[in-house]
Amino acid sequence: MAPRPAWKGYLKLSLVSCAVELTGATDHSEKVSFRILNRKTGNTVRRQYIDSVTGKPVPDDDEVKGYEIGDDEYLLVEEDEIDAVQIESSHTLAIEHFVDRDDIPQIYFDTPYYVTPSDNASEEAFAVIREAMARQDKAGIARIVLYRRERPVMIEPFDKGLLLTTLRYDKTVRKPDEVFAGLAKAKLDPELIELATHIIDKKQAAFDPSTFEDEYEAALLELIQAKQKGKTPPVVQAAERPANVVNLFDALKQSLAGDSGAKTSTSTPASKTPAVGKAANRKSAAKPRKTAKSQKSA
Prior knowledge:
Layout: E1 7-13, E2 16-24, E3 65-70, E4 73-77, H1 79-83, H2 88-91, E5 92-94, E6 97-99, E7 109-117, H3 123-136, E8 139-146, E9 149-158, E10 161-167, H4 176-180, H5 190-202, H6 215-228, H7 248-259, H8 273-280
Parallel strand pairs: 1-5
Antiparallel strand pairs: 1-2, 2-7, 3-4, 6-8, 7-10, 8-9, 9-10
């Protein structure tokens, strides 16, 4: 069954517009989910809103949204009143300007959606806008009202259509200095960095998302299948937690040695070899050290 569009409206570039629809680019329907049951009866339970003063359940028809305007004082707002709030971005994706995609820090990217023309009459205009963006290698910035919130978005060519990614507001993104300010710039041993660099070289590979497997999900399914068959659920021995590195040099050497036969990568530049050789010949009794782009189409 075809996925249901998350939004329908118009894509607009200056005076050119076309009807489009958004479809979620991700799917979570296959994830393991649980219902809450009454342990005594085995029946499913449902949530109810309870009046905070009377303690009685509130019928659906009596539920209404309220905006707090004072201490225990609320302004009632009806659903149809909220639905009546319409601005341009409620129905139109008007591209305001274009940017280099790489200029947008990754931390601002939120949720991806596919954008496609919603009728045959819009296909030509949609294709022209998409092709022009692809040739200029630019991403458009616009705004859209999704789920009763206006969100800034980035639109870019993707495969045969467009990809829209909602962006986070600047005020919602925690600035790095708030977290990293206490990290002092350490003076690092070049030989340690050289060893770590070679480990990275050994572990290089092409990006392949098909290799991603949810091992926790698989373990949950194994638990469920065992209980269905009346068997004792498997007991999985938790992996040993890593400890703090006492001798960073030895840990890097052992990592490099362990990875050397795991994967063959491109040959190591000759300029790096002497440094590794020098490091490898260091005496083992060394003094311990303390350690503390979206796919684009042409």
